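User: Working on a comparison across species. This one is DNA ligase (ATP) from Ginsengibacter hankyongi. Can you predict its structure so I can line it up against the others?
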Amino acid sequence: MLATLVDKPFDGEGWLYEVKWDGYRAIAYLNNGRAELQSRNDKSFNDKFYPVYNSLTQWKINAVLDGEIIVSNDKGISNFSKLQNWRSEADGELIYYLFDILWLDGKDLTQLPLTERREILKSIEPSVENIRISESFNAGATEFFEVAKKLELEGIIAKKTASKYYPGQRSKEWLKIKTSKRQEVIIGGYTHNEDSSKLFSSLLVGVFDNGKLQYTGKIGTGFSDKLQKEMMKQFKPLIIKESPFTFIPDVNKPSRFRPNPSKATATWLQPKLICEVSYAEMTTDGVMRHPSFEGMREDKSAIEVVREKEKHTEDVVNLPKQSLHKKRTEKLTMKKKSQKTVDKSLTGRLIKTSEKTERKTLLNPTEKSQTKNINGHSITFNNLNKIYFPKKKVTKRDVINYYYLVAPYMLPYMKDRPQTLIRYPNGIDGKSFYQKDVTGKVPEWIRQFPYSSERGGDRNFLVCTDEASLLLIASMGGLEMHPWSSRIQKPDHPDWCILDLDPSDKTSFKQVITAAQTIKQVLDAIDVTAYCKTSGATGIHIYIPLGAKYTYEQSKEFGRVLVKIVHSMIPDFTSIERIIENRKERLYLDFLQNRPQATLAAPYSLRPKQDATVSMPLLWDEVNTGLQMKDFTIFNAVERIHKHGDIFKGVLGKGINLKSVLKKINKVFGPVEMHESLKT
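Assistant: Here's the predicted structure for DNA ligase (ATP) from Ginsengibacter hankyongi:
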């Protein structure tokens, strides 16, 4: 059912008013977990707007619903251009606003009054964030319209409370009042100015009138370079030799604002593509003044696009004149402060912001190649269907989406740190390789850190500086992240000291747990706070914060002191021997990870194991015999992080006072042999 455009708001008995959402109209067909989401021209929205579709499949009802799909900004306002460019949840929050129900459990509801249909709709409302019922009001349309203008909404809809639903018909019982001038138009061609570097300079648009395409103007603003590239892909197969317009527009016609325009050439297109335009006014000959591109429309057929002319509200509604733009007696005399309160109250009912703040996935589930702008850098992610973890069917897309979701928590342990890349271009079952030198092999915006090499010449580590660089590593097949313990600002001073519990094939995980608990006892005895995480493979990593106050040599030798004490307490199954043969298949208490350029998997990093495990920070009371490495995987890690937050962040704190700690070691455990670096 379609609404008639009128020119003014009105307050009248027997009418409901609601927001005119700026999105795509969509009908949902639900059948006990099966769903179809369709546009007005019967195109499927199932894949395009997959978060809404997925929510609909969870709604176990049998119904046909009418509503509007929008992209909501942080204030809850719909944004049509973002909807038109929407590819994944990172592009904005999709919401399906429902305003009508046509069928339920085998019963046709279209002949019931609107108020009854809405009551039925409210009775089955699902408890999911991205499906909502559009709020309606039964009074105060004039005030409602003014608030809609302040919020820069597209407009309001007025519906008769007793109105029935007539599919496909444009009714005078449903009316729309726009806050600004908008028009859907058909693209009949584009121009290119001879002095322009852009792909096109303007769009040539029109509307159908008795089956003929009438020219309505030239649109030269409102599209980015990225959008132009996408539009040109749509234009290419539609190029024709002759103009589709009834009269060929003069693309070089001077105007009052451009008396000497650049010479332009026109390329004509089959009149199939639709876009939406905002404009200041329409001239007497039907051409828009100051039009601006708002976005492409895929939910309608070109033949439907005609010039939309406002009807006079008085002629349509047939209300007494005093009810049109009715003076608000008490409300208009309110003080300004009171009026702000009224506006705020109305706004709160009209617009709902999302309660969720967690970020959503970066890449959509269908396109094999996707380009995203991250931190101002354009990154193209290719081969997204490639399987990285065969056992669990985890793809490259899944890996990149994972790192996007954990980036806010992971970046503190990656930022400003040179990286040793371990790349798996064909997944964990393919060949992998280490890469330190990235000179000439990464984009110019990637920061690099030089190092010397026996081969000579420039050698540079990749430095992770932000989300874009982290995701570039993932895109290069770096499914596990290996940062330095120090940052480039103080490259010789690590932020932490690491004790790596590295079991042999003959060591049980229970013994790894015992060793970790023993280290905790030692550290508690000398009042040192430490943080632990699973390695994601077979061991456990324990980090002691140093605050970048000590050298790698001092960190290494402090680790040596600690593992000697621990080894003396559990000598039967541990070793501190570097040479593997000398360990006699015992658990290795590795302190040598505290050397310059040595790296371990970062907190929250994936590991190349069949279960797609994660190196997960732990609470110390979780370090018990019930702990298993497979407890933390790509499938549950994000949920756990949201539940507990970043429990590892203390590692980046002030750090220990090494001099005081060494004194406590001597006091509690007796005199211990120390390297010269610890005596200074």
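For your comparison, note: The CA atoms of residues 113 and 550 lie 76 Å apart.

User: Helpful, thanks.
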